[in-house]
Specification:
The complex is a heterotrimer of chains A (about 350), B (about 300) and C (about 260).
Chain A (H helix, E strand, L loop, with lengths): L5 E10 L2 E11 L4 E5 L6 H9 L6 E6 L2 E2 L10 E4 L11 H11 L4 H14 L15 H14 L4 E5 L7 H18 L2 E6 L2 H7 L2 E6 L2 E6 L1 H6 L4 H6 L4 E8 L2 E4 L2 E6 L6 E7 L4 E5 L6 E8 L3 E8 L4 E7 L11 E6 L3 E6 L1
Parallel strand pairs in A: 3-8, 3-9, 6-7, 7-8, 13-20
Antiparallel strand pairs in A: 1-2, 1-4, 4-5, 9-10, 11-12, 11-14, 12-13, 14-20, 15-19, 16-17, 16-19, 17-18
Helix pairs in contact in A: 2-3, 2-4, 3-4
Chain B lengths: L1 H23 L4 H22 L10 H6 L4 H33 L2 H15 L3 H12 L4 H8 L14 H25 L3 H9 L4 H30 L2 H6 L7 H10 L9 H31 L2
Chain C lengths: L10 H25 L1 E2 L4 E2 L2 H8 L1 H35 L4 H9 L6 H11 L2 H4 L4 H23 L3 H10 L4 H12 L1 H17 L2 H5 L5 H9 L3 H24 L3 H4 L4
Helix pairs in contact in C: 1-13, 2-13, 3-7, 3-10, 7-10, 8-9, 10-13, 12-13
Classes of the chains: A alpha+beta (about 350), B mainly alpha (about 300), C mainly alpha (about 260).
Chain lengths: ~350, ~300, ~260
């Protein structure tokens, strides 16, 4: 396997007054798929471009399998990259595009076309190999771009929001396909996206970035269940922020006391961070602690939006079977299902 | 019953035609009328009259005369000045457009766009004056070159000669090249050069394999448009030459003014038609190439 | 995402601008130097410019050229904006035809066009200077059409018109109050281009025996060379100023057809 590990050590990069990357560190193991997730302008694309050699870092080192490649020019780094869109060469056919990397590596015409067809076959486009790229749909173009990036067996695969220009359905299909290919070829992959669902769905680990800093890097499960910061909690999945009172490590929410997990003030007012699926809504004939605003049916589950007495909007996700009697306006009792909650300062 | 259907059918077919006319053509009528009357009609009439003899009978004698001396030399000179001025302006203009579009700030690009627009339209007496002042016998550049030891006017050089006119034409051909070639540069996506580098291409291989092949059609197209511009330029040639350099636009102008008389009244029209044919040979491929590269730009 | 948009010193760009600037400005500055010479005193001054603007003909011709250019702009906008809007909305079959037609003037050398125009129009057209704006319109058509076409292509025209129509605007209001402001970049570019072309048009004008500012310069040159040079300098600077003013009023984004 030609795949190698990737390490970014203390990378800094400024554009004018903007700190795109601030002492940034990252490690991607052999064959691992790591996603960098964050709002636009957080520095994730800059990190990817520094790895590709398309930007040069102001400070820090990039290592591929412990070899320092910080000063190797982009065209001598052995990395395949898939861009957002429109990166295929319009004057070349599909197969010529895919064979381009091998041609640059002086592979014989016979061999490189053979390899190109192999890759095109893998992405299901071998029948289109003689066409020009503007004759393909957006999804097909990105498949070709993927084949092109993998054809020369790169040490690292870099994906720069490859799905962002595509329609929703195509996106889901293609991301599964990227994962399938990546697993079968075992290519170390760095994947940049602003779509958290995309990142969580196909990555081994997800790094959440904000203002040029890696806030947390963990498996999707850990990220979702144990966000390391309030920013991560808000950025990954939906999170209720419920005003509450904390004392002695316990938070009082909806009339019951729950263990507070680290962070935030020791005593006084805080926000409790609770996932929608950790809140239950039950109809009550007595005076409840909230009123139902809307209920949206989504098949197996339903989304209930309630408003508490103090005006806080709370979202709950429950199996549809138990929500039949939750009509808008009805009085309900909210409860926290988890025994521990994260808290954040108000 | 039957007759009713037929009776009802005829007017409704008429109405359907009217409705379809209103929907499909009516809004274009003002444009079609103006273009038809002020453009297509004169051109059609020009072509028609070019086939008429002095007695208004059909003839091709006008064209026979049009391809003989001195008009033959006029065409050759006009084609020559079109080709040379385009050939000399094309490459530097393209390179200039490249650096301006890729390295220039947005302020600079806008300034250059406005200036090119003005300069590409200069011509005639104002342009002639500028070159008399710079490269005329008493011109500043002429004096400077003489000071350096190169006497421009030692030989047969004059601004009204072929070489002189060629230099003056560059003054509007270069900005024209910048204008027509810039869109091609803009359509060259940064992703292409980055993807090429990422796939292992050096700057040189990128240009050989991707950049130049992508720009080449637009380059040829721009060259063709510049040819048409140099080939048909009238005002500047009219201001600089004094009958010493036969050029078709000047010959037509002379016939039109009545300054020059010809045995055939409609000779000027035939010359005009031949000019149109030559110009079309350059402009139509230009338009075709433009249309084709628009497809690439869509990605 | 912030990418390296640094304003650094660019040697290739600087060299390019230096060479181009030399070629453009040496003749211009040479002519300017001539135009401010005062042969009587042997010094420099604005004598010839003052002479020019004191000539009655100066204002006569410059105003005439300006209003002819203005009429051309009006014809261009009144004909092209509604027609193009409709073409974009209706998917009419004549679209291809009109697209092609709009480019046709590029094919025809102006001299040949002038010959055709001279032998085609009835007296009443040939006798009015108002034939010129229509002919200038034809000359500017390929550029004006393309510029507006790009503008209309870059906006969700169908949605915008439907919104305006459903809000109760008639077609006239929809075009003037909604579409034109949305594509103002293209509209301003079209105005600038058409105005400049009409203001400087020489070949067609002179061959049809009309007098405008550009042909007047030629006339003056016959007996007052330095005065004519001064007028020539003004004829270069005036369109430059007009274009600069027009483009300054346009937000930068809409000037370029980029995404």
């Amino acid at each position: 396997m030609s795949s190698k590990s990737l390490t970014l050590r203390n990378i800094s990069k400024r554009f004018g007054n903007v700190n795109a990357l601030d002492n940034f560190n990252l490690e991607v193991g052999v064959g691992e798929l790591v996603a960098l997730l964050g709002p636009s302008g957080c520095g994730k694309t800059t990190a990817l471009r520094v790895v590709a050699g398309l930007e040069h870092q102001d400070a820090g080192t990039v290592l591929v399998a412990d070899k320092n490649i910080s000063d190797v020019p982009a065209h001598k780094r052995n990395m395949g990259m898939v861009f957002q869109a429109y990166s295929l060469f319009p004057n070349l056919t599909v197969e010529e595009n895919v064979a381009f990397g091998l041609q640059m590596r002086k592979v014989s015409k016979h061999l490189r076309l053979k390899k190109a067809h192999e890759l095109l076959d893998l992405v299901g486009l071998d029948s289109q190999s003689k066409r020009f790229t503007h004759q393909l749909s957006g999804g097909q173009q990105q498949r070709v771009a993927l084949a092109r990036a993998l054809a020369f067996e790169p040490e690292i695969l870099l994906l720069d929001e490859p799905l962002s220009a595509l329609d929703a359905q195509v996106r889901v299909n293609l991301r599964e396909e990227i994962r399938r290919l990546q697993l079968s070829l075992g290519t170390t992959t760095l994947f940049v996206t602003h779509d958290q669902e995309e990142a969580m769905a196909i990555s081994d680990r997800v790094g959440v970035m904000n203002n040029g800093v890696l806030e947390q890097i963990d498996t999707p499960d850990t990220l979702y269940n144990k966000p390391a910061s309030s920013f991560v909690a808000g950025f990954v999945g939906t999170m209720n922020r419920i005003p509450a009172h904390i004392s002695d490590g316990m938070v009082e929410i909806f009339g019951s006391k729950v263990v507070a997990l680290k962070r935030g003030n020791e005593t006084g007012k805080v926000h409790a961070l609770i996932r929608p699926e950790s809140i239950s809504v039950a109809a009550t004939t007595a005076q409840g602690n909230a009123k139902v605003l809307t209920r949206s049916f989504m098949g197996a589950s339903s989304n209930i939006i309630c408003q508490t007495e103090d005006g806080t909007i709370v979202q709950s996700l429950m199996t549809s079977a138990s929500t039949g009697d939750l009509l808008p306006g009805s009085s309900v009792q909210l409860r926290v299902l988890s025994s521990e909650v994260l808290v954040a300062n108000v | 019953m039957t007759s009713q259907v037929i009776e009802g059918g005829a007017p409704s077919r008429g109405r359907a035609f009217l409705a379809s006319f209103i929907k499909n053509i009516l809004p274009a009528v003002p444009l079609l009328l103006i273009v038809g009357f002020f453009f297509l009609f004169p051109i059609a009439r020009l072509i028609y009259v070019s086939f008429l003899s002095n007695e208004n009978t059909f003839t091709i004698d006008n064209f026979k005369t049009a391809v003989q001396e001195p008009y033959r030399t006029g065409f050759l000179n006009s084609i020559k000045i079109g080709v040379f001025s385009a050939a000399i302006a094309a490459f530097p203009g393209a390179v200039a457009a490249y650096f301006i579009e890729t390295r220039g700030s947005s302020k600079l690009r806008r300034t250059i766009a406005v200036m090119s627009g003005v300069l590409a339209n200069t011509g005639g007496v104002p342009l002639a004056f500028m070159f008399y002042a710079a490269l005329g016998i008493q011109g500043y550049l002429t004096k400077f070159l003489k000071y350096l030891g190169w006497d421009l006017y030692a030989g047969t050089f004059s601004l009204g000669s072929f070489i002189g006119l060629l230099i003056v034409y560059l003054y509007f051909q270069l900005p024209l090249m910048v204008i027509v070639f810039s869109p091609a540069i803009v359509s060259l996506r940064r992703e292409w050069s980055e993807a090429a580098r990422n796939l292992g291409a050096s700057q040189f291989s990128y240009w050989i394999r991707i950049g130049i092949p992508l720009l080449f059609p637009s380059f040829i197209a721009s060259f063709l448009l510049l040819f048409a511009s140099g080939f048909s330029a009238y005002a500047t040639a009219n201001a600089l030459t004094v009958g010493n350099l036969p050029l078709t636009p000047l010959q037509i102008g002379g016939l039109l003014d009545g300054n020059v008389s010809a045995a055939q009244l409609n000779l000027g029209k035939a010359l005009g038609v031949v000019m149109i044919v030559i110009s079309a040979c350059a402009v139509i491929p230009y338009l075709a190439i433009q249309r084709r590269s628009a497809k690439w730009q869509k990605g | 995402m912030a990418k390296g948009i640094k304003v650094r010193f660019q040697p290739p760009l600087a060299i390019t601008l230096l060479i181009l600037g030399f070629f453009v400005f040496v003749p211009m500055i040479s002519a300017f130097e001539y135009s401010i010479r005062t042969p009587l005193t042997g010094g420099y001054g604005w004598t010839h410019y003052i002479w020019a603007v004191r000539e009655d003909d100066f204002f006569h011709y410059i105003l005439r050229s300006m209003w002819l250019a203005g009429v051309t702009v009006l014809i261009t906008l009144f004909v092209l904006v509604p027609t193009l809007t409709w073409l974009h909305l209706s998917r009419s079959k004549v679209r291809g035809l009109i697209d092609g037609l709009s480019l046709l003037p590029l094919v025809i050398p102006v001299v040949a066009f002038a010959v055709g125009a001279q032998i085609s129009f009835p007296e009443f057209v040939q006798n009015t200077v108002l034939e010129l704006p229509f002919l200038y319109f034809v000359l500017a058509l390929p550029y004006a059409y393309r510029s507006l076409d790009i503008g209309l292509n870059s906006i969700p025209l169908k949605t915008i018109t439907e919104a305006a129509r459903s809000a109760g605007a008639n077609w006239w209001r929809t075009i003037t109050a909604v579409i034109v402001p949305v594509i103002r970049g293209s509209v301003m570019a079209t105005i600038a281009l058409t105005f400049a072309l009409s203001l400087g048009e020489y070949t067609l004008t002179v061959l049809l025996h009309w007098d405008t500012f550009p042909t007047w310069v030629t006339f003056v040159a016959q007996d007052n060379i330095l005065g004519a040079i001064a007028i020539s300098m003004m004829s270069l600077i005036i369109p430059f100023l007009i274009l600069t003013v027009i483009t300054l009023f346009v937000p930068e984004r809409s000037m370029q057809g980029r995404k």
